[in-house]
Amino acid sequence: MKRFEGKVAVVTGAGGGIGSAIARRLSAEGALVVVTDVNTEAAAEVVSGIEAEGGRAAAMTADISNKAACFGLIEQAFALRGRLDVLVNNAGINRRGNLLSLSDEDWDVSFAVNLDSMFHLCRAVLPLMIAAGGGAIVNTASQWAFIRPPTTLPTTRPKLRLPPSRRTSHATMRRTGSA
Ligand SMILES: NC(=O)c1ccc[n+]([C@@H]2O[C@H](COP(=O)([O-])OP(=O)(O)OC[C@H]3O[C@@H](n4cnc5c(N)ncnc54)[C@H](O)[C@@H]3O)[C@@H](O)[C@H]2O)c1
């Protein structure tokens, strides 16, 4: 039996490079993979590839910089099979610039996609995982959160805040006996 047989996994940013590889691997391990991305065509292409390899996947378009879209995505993914076992918070963006050249929008969308989305998606999925007695959440960070280049302001810096949020999710599940 494959390791993820019967499980449902959501991978954000799964139309992109790393996300599509994660989605294909989870599918090869037996999971039904929800391939979600703001880019509808990219997500559909990844689903076609998975199905061509004999796997099962569903494409869902969602802009995870939006809180309601995060909760809607989890609701829609859960409805597929009445379960949600794995959440991979992979989607991320990198707006390049320095303190003066970056716009307010660059700053806001970087926090919304790279950090806030994980907060909302974790809060949407945790009650379902706790009720089911377990689950797994993977948050993708970036080495750019730790590097301080002299001339640019890395907009992936919000990912510096990931480790505490990961510990918090785990502690929440442990307290309820789900991890
Ligand atoms: N590629 C690297 O060298 C590298 C290094 C360190 C960390 N990372 C991290 O790995 C993750 C994936 O990186 P990648 O190289 O595959 O990036 P990528 O650009 O190939 O893929 C990112 C995907 O996220 C999607 N996305 C962007 N904004 C979104 C939104 N608002 N809602 C939903 N989806 C959205 C994009 O459409 C894209 O398909 C990112 O979190 C990135 O920060 C990448």
Automatic annotation (TrEMBL):
Alphabetically sorted, this entry's keywords are:
Oxidoreductase
Q: Which residues form a coiled coil?
A: none
Where does this protein have compositionally biased stretches of type Low complexity?
A: 155-166
> Which SMART domains does the UniProt entry name for this protein?
PKS_KR (SM00822)
Q: Which domain of life is it from?
A: Bacteria
Residue ranges of domain Ketoreductase in the record: 7-150
User: Which Pfam family, any one, appears in the UniProt record?
Assistant: adh_short
Q: Which InterPro entries match?
A: KR_dom (IPR057326), NAD(P)-bd_dom_sf (IPR036291), SDR_fam (IPR002347)
Cite the residue spans of the region called Disordered: 155-179
- Which family does the record assign? Belongs to the short-chain dehydrogenases/reductases (SDR) family.
The protein, known as: NAD(P)-dependent dehydrogenase (Short-subunit alcohol dehydrogenase family)
